[in-house]
Design goal:
It contains eleven helices and 13 strands. It is of the alpha/beta class. It has a single domain, classed as Peroxisomal Thiolase, Chain A, domain 1, CATH 3.40.47.10. The strands form four sheets. Strands 1-7-6-4-5 form a five-stranded mixed sheet, with helices on both faces. It has a four-stranded mixed sheet with strand order 8-13-12-11, sandwiched between helices. Helix 3 packs across helix 4 and helix 8 packs parallel to helix 9. The chain is globular and about 65 Å long. It starts with 5 loop residues before the first strand and ends with a strand.
Length: about 325
Amino acid sequence: MEKKIYASLNSIGAYVPNKIVTNDDLSKIVDTSDEWIQKRTGIKERRFADSTEATSDLATKAAQLAIKRAKLTPNEIDMVIVATISPDFLCMPSTACVVANNLGIINKPAFDISAACSGFIYLLYLAKSFIESRACKNILIIGAEKLSSIIDMEDRSTCVLFGDGAGAAVIGSSEDPSQAILDVRVASNGGYQEFLMTPGCGSRNPANAKMLEDRLQFIKMKGNETFKIAVKTLTNDVIEIMKNNHLTKDDIDFFIPHQANLRIISAVGESLGFPIEKVAQSVQKYGNTSAASIPMAMNDYYEAGALKKGSRLLLDAFGGGLTWGSAILSFNGE
């Protein structure tokens, strides 16, 4: 009888641009202040890529690290999937195709997905399916964003929130259930699409002078409405996935929610009863990096020496669409 195959998180890697943009820096561009930003978001600084760096460049550097840490070569990667809302090109080629070419991965499937801040959870969902169906042995998944290219620097309610960066992981196959991505849940509700969206440049509002004049090419967000539904949805989603897998907070080593807003992170963590030392908090130094935020936070734990082989992780995200998702998995890296 053929043995059961499990999808396994075998490595993590990340990359952030060199340029640090503080709240004081932004206060010189838009009507805001360090106190105003920190009080509402917890963010102190973020990274912005320069004009020579595209999303694929950030993704490539994170991917190179993840592949190296997985002790693989690029030709051992069977598929490349990138989650992004700030792709190199509006239509084609996909950012994943560009990244695969940069890495020397040829004649393999490569494609993008768009699930906003839930992107990395969606990537895990896809990779788990491909691995456990035996279609692939090693899949490179990347959450990467150059959000500085799609934020309106005249809108203080949104421009202070976002940053650039990338996080990557290699998902491999294992016969050991203790190494498995135990469960991934993803969902959406397009009825709330106007809460968080980029209205322009698509077929609904094609690129033209009027669209640019109205600044529809930039992220638009209804902050208060998004905050309220995010806290409720994230909390309920975690409670459900934990219950379905017969786990409690004591079974989790690290809770890594999407890094959007410190108030949301704190509210969800407190409602679930996680001690602060178990809850990832990197939003202060990176801002909201959308699909990249969870793997970037995971990489911070790894590089600090806290994330070790066998650590059990609970991931949780909520983003534009609206989309959301959660995952329970063990880290199988070295």
